[in-house]
Automatic annotation (TrEMBL), chains A, B:
It holds the Pfam family HTH_20. This is DNA-binding transcriptional ArsR family regulator. One of its GO terms (molecular function) is DNA-binding transcription factor activity. Residues 6-99 form the HTH arsR-type domain. Keywords: DNA-binding, Transcription, Transcription regulation. Gene3D superfamilies: Winged helix-like DNA-binding domain superfamily/Winged helix DNA-binding domain (1.10.10.10). Coiled coil: none annotated. It comes from Rhizobium soli. It comes from the Bacteria.
Length: 108, 108
């Protein structure tokens, strides 16, 4: 199984982070990761085909938002919360609030 | 002179806002608008040709970030700060901090 590449925090830009968050599928993945320590791709993909979501996971990884590790045949994903909080203080908190407000609005 | 269209705040999505912020030219415009009440396109375009920046102003308007009004032959632009703060509490504050941190890093 190939090893995933993850950027160092100083390598990521705020533009990249915003771009990664500009898609509803990726926002849904981030929203789920906000509520859990770690989750498999299967638990996060909303039943979408692997071919369609693997791109989104890559964008999230390359933007520094998500860390993916291999566990057996699964990929386990986690938000890089501590590092993101250091690099862009407060960002993840407001992003979470906005995502959950959005989810509430969509459900209403 | 044509009248600019602006979405109502309930019409904009957080994805759109993040997309609008995912480009360095648009971030630069937002950064300048953070420091001023209102500014003309000329004062914000960083000397870029009108053909290139008018697209960026449109993206910012359509995402609900910027309000543009005609004043004589100029377009005057302002952040929709109060409305954005109501719709996505805290977002603009963190965005500003991230943009200015980024500007500092770029200048260093």
């Amino acid at each position: 199984m190939r090893v995933m590449k993850h950027p160092a925090m100083h390598e990521i830009s705020i533009e990249q982070v915003f771009y990664a968050l500009s898609d509803p599928v990726r926002l849904e993945i981030v929203q789920k990761l906000c509520r859990t320590e770690e989750a498999s791709c299967n638990a996060l993909d909303g039943g979408r085909p692997k071919s369609s979501v693997s791109h989104h996971f890559r964008v999230l990884r390359e933007a520094g938002l998500v860390w993916t590790r291999n566990e057996g045949v699964s990929h386990m994903n986690a938000l890089r919360r501590r590092e993101l909080d250091e690099r862009f203080p407060g960002l993840l908190t407001v992003v979470e609030a906005a995502i959950f407000a959005r989810a509430g609005a969509n459900a209403a």
